[in-house]
Write a structure and sequence with these properties.
It is built from 15 helices and 15 strands. The strands form two sheets. It has a nine-stranded mixed β-sheet with strand order 14-13-12-11-7-10-9-8-15. The chain binds nicotinamide-adenine-dinucleotide.
Length: 420
């Protein structure tokens, strides 16, 4: 089997996580270069993968200024920094694995999708859910006609109250202008999975939702701007930062607050950085709950709810067909298939693939498949090719437009506006 070589653009949480695959499977994948402006991150990645000095760069501009160094690049920079390095990588002849969302800018998504169909390179998007055992099992059950013709889907993304606070109130995805609307940043995976399961083009989209809890008018009386500044409700507040970030567990999400995970460095991060702020006194503007209704060309309908107000960080789904139902709870690794005729319910228990941190095994499944496609040198595209991903991104753009304007969006004419 040919060993694939890759370079990483953006050695942050996601990129570093994916490339653990190279350390677990050195016969399949070798990391040969990195571009990362933060010296601490770059050096740590360099030593973990034994990279040569001259193959460690401060930015993607410096990386693309030298002749091609690897078969493929992983682009794991922040949402608004996807378009430029992706176009440069494809022009330079690299195969590309790009983090989602492709871009918060609809026009850039179209341009990337068009580029994908022109170049003879693998160009995949990290829609990791398609590579989970859970959703691929559901997809096979549907394709085999187990519940007859699919009619309706009811899907929930249970964000988790603490996860909302970490990422979408205090963290990197809290402001639409700086990253993306929540429906794109968090739920483009879910819209993509609904498109895949429905098995047909999406035709119409409507949506409601708002930011209504993590706002200053909900702040407890006397709550200071930062939790450590003598908050009078520290005992009862669900979001008091030391409860989350000053425990013995320094895995994610704590690992996101500081590169130095000593107690003192974390304490300082809470005194000075974004994760120490009161959740009711942040500068967040993305929604904390949203519903989306979808209609597909084959008359399947889907209702999707994304909510911060759940204990578990999980996904639950119910698929209704003419001959039966499928109920699934991703984080419990459980799928139940109900047959109307026999009245019987069959339970399928899946192997635990590592929970939500690795997206139920999807992260590593995606990398494995990307390497297969690269070894075939772009002769075929995978489950999450960029040209296919454009449609699910447009479902998210349309949902956001509908939420703001209060109207139903026809997806074909909505997308057409950005193509001209
Ligand atoms: N697929 C998924 O399920 C999933 C989950 C979470 C996040 N994401 C997405 O993954 C992406 C990365 O998220 P993250 O949490 O790893 O972010 P991060 O901020 O930890 O990492 C991004 C890195 O890019 C680096 N960078 C900035 N400018 C650069 C430049 N010019 N050249 C090279 N590197 C540069 C930053 O210094 C940083 O280290 C985001 O788009 C995010 O939305 C995807």
């Amino acid at each position: 089997m040919k060993k694939v070589t890759v370079a990483l653009i953006g050695a942050g949480l996601r990129g570093v996580n994916y490339l653990e695959y190279a350390l677990q499977h050195p016969d399949e994948l070798q990391v040969v270069a990195v571009a990362e402006p933060k010296a601490e991150r770059r050096d740590s990645f360099k030593s973990r993968h034994g990279l040569e000095d001259e193959k460690c760069f401060d930015s993607w501009d410096e990386f693309f200024a030298v002749p091609k160094l690897a078969d493929a690049v992983l682009i794991c920079t922040q949402d608004k920094q996807h378009f430029d390095p992706t176009m440069k990588a494809l022009e330079a002849g690299y195969h590309v694995l790009l983090e989602k969302p492709m871009s918060p800018d609809a026009k850039e998504c179209i341009l990337m999708g068009e580029m994908a169909s022109r170049v003879n390179r693998v160009f995949s998007i990290c829609h990791v859910l398609r590579y989970t055992h859970f959703f691929s099992t559901i997809k096979s059950l549907l394709d085999n006609g187990t519940i007859g013709k699919l009619m309706s889907i009811d899907h929930n993304e249970n964000v988790g109250y603490w996860h909302q606070a970490h990422s979408f109130v205090r963290g990197n995805w809290r402001r639409k202008e700086d990253s993306s609307p929540m429906i794109l940043a968090k739920s483009c995976h879910d819209l993509d999975i609904l498109l895949w399961l429905a098995g047909s083009d999406c035709t119409r989209v409507s949506s409601f939702g708002s930011l209504s809890h993590f706002t200053s008018d909900q702040a407890p009386e006397g709550a200071p701007l930062r939790c450590l500044d003598g908050c009078p409700v520290s005992d009862e507040c669900l979001y008091y930062t030391p409860k989350h970030y000053l425990t013995d567990d320094t895995n994610w999400p704590t690992s996101a607050i500081s590169d130095d995970l000593s107690y003192n460095a974390r304490y300082k991060a809470l005194q000075e950085g974004p994760y120490g702020r009161c959740v009711y006194h942040c500068d967040n503007d993305v929604v904390d709950h949203q519903v989306v209704n979808l209609e597909f060309a084959n008359s399947v309908t889907a209702a999707f709810t994304m909510s911060a107000f759940t204990r578990d960080v999980s996904r639950t789904i119910k698929l209704m067909g003419t001959k039966g139902e499928i109920h699934g709870a991703m984080e419990k690794n459980e799928i139940e298939v109900i047959d109307f005729d026999s009245g019987k319910a069959e339970r399928i228990s899946l192997v635990d693939m590592g929970g939500h941190v690795g997206h139920g095994g999807g992260d590593m499944g995606l990398i494995k498949d990307f390497l297969r496609l690269v070894r075939e040198d772009g002769k075929c595209q995978g489950l999450t090719s960029a040209d296919r991903s454009v449609q699910s991104h447009f479902m998210a753009f349309a949902a956001e437009q509908s939420r703001i304007d209060g109207r139903i969006i026809d997806l074909t004419s909505f997308t057409h506006r950005f193509r001209t």
